[in-house]
Design brief:
This protein is α/β, with parallel strands linked by helices and 448 residues long. It is built from 21 helices and 13 strands. The chain folds into three domains: 232 residues, 3-Layer(aba) Sandwich (EreA/ChaN-like  fold); 58 residues, no CATH class; 140 residues. The strands form three sheets. It has an eight-stranded mixed beta sheet with strand order 1-9-12-6-2-5-3-4, sandwiched between helices. Strands 8-7-13 form a three-stranded mixed beta sheet.
Length: 448
């Protein structure tokens, strides 16, 4: 038996077939154990099966392992509207309305059918909880919402401290010389020295908000604490967004690292907040792309100086964190052809030869789970650096190798991986003509 055939045999022997049965993921949940952070990825930002499987795993973690928060690769203010809905806010009448703030590109990432179903499930689950403290929330980790977060901070201060709101308008007015729909304009102008930065103003506003924390939170118990925490996080987003948009014009490494550091800092702030509410350490599940939740040290990213959520959480929490990735070989995906472009239903090329996805396809098992942690056989056979596919919000099959593959060492990157051999495009809530039309079928070569 040659080395390649032996490798396929070893993968096949370790694969746990996923048949849709109740016990499909029992071994994964056993591996997760009492971990307080479970990071669940996706190999694309537009695959229905990834979203559905991740949602089902999360439901189990909430129901059976006491998870109190779902933290996602999305903006804080947009996600907090969903949080209000799942916690029972009567002013938000349905899940479609709860997801309404996810309006900017790529809206389909969170405005999709799977998210409607999950938000409704979480709202129903929370209604069975005896107290507000026992409910599970939904939160965003990302850093892009400069203008929306400014609006949210001012709206909060208008309610609790109009004089402080006036001061906040003065601080944040630093950004008014730039187009409100284009924070990159600020980043370019300030990083190139064309205009002063707003760094001092946004930091002073965060400090001012925190100085009044006791006064703001003593008013209405649980509700006041929630509202202040939300405002504080928005103020933190503004500080880091200001840095991020300047860093965009310095280097990819610095902006990527700032963004993922912000997401981890937000995760830890959320863990502290939920822990105080519940009187015990909070457990949180994270939803983000594989490129964020797989340990960067095992990838080309890490070799280039980039870190990510998975690396930072694993470095500090070890086995108290579980990192779960996804992969697929072929099918369709919802993605755009360019930034700010419309959602399209695109054909995913069959995996490139010698990639992890191609190896998994060769097992002949349609869908399966691989537990990588402490699996000596797979560590020995899969630790050779191989190609792995990553499709974000843009998919360019004509430049498949350059645009969507990178080298990684899978057993060091994830604790477990779920392979779904043929997958289908995630359906947006408002699919346009290009999505419905899809792509004409093409026969792609597999050895490019």
């Amino acid at each position: 038996m040659n080395a390649h055939a032996l490798l396929i045999k070893e993968i096949t022997a370790s694969a746990i077939s996923l048949t849709g049965g109740a016990g499909d993921y029992s071994s994964l949940m056993k591996m997760i154990g009492d971990a307080h952070f479970v990071l669940i990825g996706e190999a694309t930002h537009g695959t229905d099966e990834f979203y559905r499987t991740r949602a089902e795993l999360t439901k189990y973690l909430i129901q059976h392992k006491g998870f109190s928060g779902v933290a996602v690769e999305a903006d804080w203010p947009d996600s907090y509207r969903v949080n209000r809905y799942v916690r029972g806010d009567a002013n938000i009448h349905n899940a479609h309305s709860a997801l309404a703030e996810f309006a900017r590109f790529p809206a389909w990432m969170w405005r999709n059918e799977v998210m409607v179903e999950f938000a409704d499930w979480l709202r129903d689950y929370n209604q069975t909880c005896a107290t507000e403290h026992e409910k599970t929330g939904f939160y965003g980790l990302d850093v892009y919402s400069l203008r929306a977060s400014i609006k949210a901070v001012i709206a909060y201060l208008d309610r609790v401290d109009p004089e402080a709101a006036r001061q906040a308008r003065h601080y944040y007015g630093c950004f008014d010389r730039y187009r409100k729909d284009d924070p990159q304009e600020y980043g370019y102008a300030s990083s190139s020295g064309l205009t002063p930065t707003c760094e001092r103003e946004v930091i002073e506003q965060l400090v001012a908000l925190r100085q009044h924390a006791f006064d703001y939170m003593k008013r209405d118990g649980f509700s006041a604490g929630e509202e202040f925490f939300c405002a504080e996080q928005n103020a933190r987003v503004i500080v880091d967004a200001e840095r991020y948009y300047r860093a965009m014009f310095a280097s990819r490494v610095s902006s990527w690292n700032l963004r993922d550091r912000h997401m981890v800092d937000t995760l830890y702030a959320l863990a502290d907040h939920l822990g105080r509410q519940r009187g015990e350490r909070a457990k949180i599940v994270v939803w983000a792309h594989n490129s964020h939740i797989g340990d960067a040290r095992a990838t080309e990213m890490g070799e280039g100086g980039e870190w990510n959520i998975g690396q930072l959480v694993r470095e500090h929490h070890g086995r108290d964190a579980a990192l779960v990735g996804f992969s697929t070989c072929r099918g369709t995906v919802t993605a755009a052809s360019n930034w700010d472009g419309p959602a399209e239903r695109k054909t995913v090329r069959p995996a490139m030869r010698e990639s992890y996805e191609a190896l998994f396809h060769e097992t002949g098992i349609k869908n399966f789970l691989l537990l990588l942690r402490d699996n000596g056989v797979l560590i020995r056979h899969l630790s050779l650096s191989r190609l792995q596919r990553a499709i974000g919000v843009i998919y360019l099959p004509e430049t498949e190798r350059q645009s969507h593959y990178f080298f990684s060492r899978l057993p060091e990157q994830f604790d477990a991986i779920i392979h779904l051999d043929e997958t289908h495009a995630l359906k947006p809530l408002e699919p346009g003509g290009l999505w419905h039309k899809g792509e004409a079928f093409e026969t792609y070569p597999t050895g490019l």
